[in-house]
Each structure stands twice: as C-alpha cells, then as structure tokens.
Amino acid sequence: MKLKQIYELFVREGIETDPRGIAVAELDLLKRKEEYDALSAEKKALYDIESLTNPYYDSRILNGDPETEVNTVMVGIDIETPEILLAGQLNNSGKKIDLLIGHHPEGYAYSTFYNVIGMQSDILNKQGIPVNIAEKMVASRMKDVKRSILPQNNDRVADAAKLLGIPLMTAHTVSDNHVASFLQKQIDISNPRYLKDILSFLNTQPEYQYSAKAGIPPFILLGNDDSRCGKIFVDMTGGTEGPVESLEKLADAGVGTIVGMHMSEKCYKEAEKQKLNVVLAGHISSDNLGLNLLFDKLENKFGSLEFIECSGFRRFKRTVNN
Q1: Which of 44, 160, 172, 181 is surrounded by the most beta carbons within 10 Å?
Q2: Handedness of CA 157, 162, 167, 171 (dihedral sign)
Q3: Is 303:309 a contact under the CB 8 Å cutoff?
Q4: Is the alpha carbon torsion for 141, 145, 147, 148 positive or negative?
Q5: What is the pLDDT of residues 127-156, one digit of tens each?
Q6: What is the C-alpha separation between 82 and 103, in angstroms, rounded?
C-alpha cells in the first residue's frame, strides 16, 4: 500500500467515527471552504489547503513522498528524535522501515493542533451543555493551548526525519475519535449500573489487559466499585483535556460518570467538587486502542503490514468489525 492510502483512510475513518457526527465534521470542512474562497490571493497562498479535506490538524504526513510504498511500519505512541535515530539504525542493520507513525503530534501537526480543540464545543453540546456556553468555554481553552505551543521549537522531530530520509506521519485525533466512539458505543450497549461494571468491560480489551499487567490498570479516580454510574460520558478526543469549567456544566446537564484517559489535578478537584464519578481507562493504553482500531481497518482494506512496535505501542488485532 502507499503512504497516501494510509493517510487518506485514516482521515476518512476519523470522520466516520467523529463523536460530533459525520454531518458536523463535514460542515466544519464546508465552513473552511467558504472562508478560503473569501480570502484574497495573497492570503490564499499562505492557507493550509490540506485542512479543506482533513478536519484534524494534528494528523498529518510530516515527511515523505505520498507515493511511497509501505510494507513495514514502525509505530510508537511518541515518535521523537530518539525513535527516528533508532529507525535509522535498524535500517542500517538491514531492517527496511518504510514509514514511521507516531500518535502524538509533532512538527506542523503539533504547531496547529489547538485548532482541533474546537470540536469539543459540539461534543459538550451533545452532552446537554448549551452550544453558546460550550463555544465560549472551549474558545478560552484553545487560546491557552495556542499560547503554550507557539513559542516552542516544533520542527525538531520532522527535521530529524527529513535528514535521515524516513517518511513520518502522525495520527492523533483520527485515532482518539476511534477510542471515544468505540468505548461509548460498547458502554451504551452494556449499560453498566456500577463503576465496577465499567472496569469489568474495559478489562476485556487487550490493550487494557496488557497495561494492567504492566502495572497501569484502568481504575476509579472518583467514586467506588458500587457507585452507580448514571449517565456516562466517554471523554477521549478533542486534542487535549477540556476546560475545567465544563465539569460543572456537565454535572448540571445530568452526566454522572466520566470515562477518560487521564485527568489533571485541577480538573480532578473540580470533578470531586461536582460529585462526578470518574473512571480513568489509561492514557497510553487508550492511545493503543485507537491506533489498533485504525490499523484493523487499514489491513482489512489493503492487506497486511509488518509492524515494528516501539515507544509504548503494541499491536493487537481484532477479528470483528469495529
């Protein structure tokens, strides 16, 4: 298969599993097209054309010819300069690595990923928060993240890949969308009554089983085994952690339990104040789940790949449709 086929499938499947709904994701693209068409020629020359077909700034090809044939892929949750040097060493040892795929964004995908946070307003709206309130909360969070990103030296990893001539791409929100949609769907079907039932379900998934054996199992952050779930919100996508003030609004909207990857101390204290239950499935394990769901779809369509696991990634295949 070709690099462009991997990238295009990831974007397409990211849209298909977008928790906002396909229609909202496509409307996002339409809005960008309208904005682009209204620009002057000078501003069009600087516009990110790729964002007209890919709504996820943090999932991009950072280096390499899209026509590159890919048979062997080295995948890591974080692909940074050490992993790129490792890939170069493996290539020098006779292991032909055609592509590096990292989950967390780097380079341009990191410089612009604050734009992805905007999707949280629609996700929060679906949980019952009025859209006008959700938009204002999320806009403030986007500004905070943008300010933290822009001063950084974001091209280091992409530059390393270019110097060694190794194709590199990132798959962040396209993967996280799969985690959120998959877990929300399965939890809705099983309709757990108690928090311990959520843990029981999570522990049926190979990514969480592996992580548990490594000492990092899913766990209850707030509540206990016999706490009743109420309305369950799986919060696993949207670039980064949502605004802290959204927790009060979620509680007001009737959410009883949040299932997430991780939670900052500030959000933990606010969730505790709002009497919310919180179950943490795990960060790296959930990232693995999203990538594996994507790779299942990729291999089902284009055939098998040889995977080299690194930087926290482990390949687990599912035989059922996701």
Answers
A1: 172
A2: positive
A3: no
A4: positive
A5: 999 999 999 999 999 999 999 999 999 999
A6: 15
Residue 321 has pLDDT above 60, yes or no: no
Q: How far apart are CA 255 and CA 272, in angstroms?
A: 13
How far apart CA 319 and CA 315 sit, in angstroms, is: 13
Q: Which of 123, 129, 63, 133 is nearest to 98 (CA)?
A: 63
Per DSSP, 69 falls in state: B
The CA distances from residue 10 to 17, 45, 98, 290, 293, in Å, are: 10, 26, 17, 11, 10
Q: What is the pLDDT of residue 142?
A: 95
DSSP, collapsed to helix, strand or coil, labels residue 161 as helix
Distance CA 235, CA 117 (A): 13
Residue spans of beta strands (DSSP E) within 96-160: 99-102
Report residue 113 as tokens.
């990923």
Asked if residues 159 and 110 have their Cβ atoms less than 8 Å apart, the reply is no
- The predicted-structure confidence for 275-289, as pLDDT tens digits, reads as follows 999 999 999 999 999
Largest CA distance in the chain: 61
Q: With CA atoms as reference, report the closest residue to 208 among 122, 290, 92.
A: 290
CA-closest candidate to residue 260, choices 231, 298, 220, 201: 220
Q: Which residue has the tokens 């734009």?
A: 115
Say if residues 281 and 202 touch (Cβ distance below 8 Å).
yes
Confidence of residue 317 (pLDDT cuts 50, 70, 90): very high
Sequence letter at residue 23: A
Strands 168-170 and 99-102: parallel
What residues contact residue 128 under an 8 Å CB cut-off, 6+ apart? 250, 253, 254, 255
Torsion (CA) 13, 317, 3, 173 in degrees, nearest 10: 40
Residue 247 in tokens: 């927790």
Q: How far apart are CA 25 and CA 19, in angstroms?
A: 9
Amino acid letter, residue 228: R
Query: What is the total residue count of the chain?
Result: 322
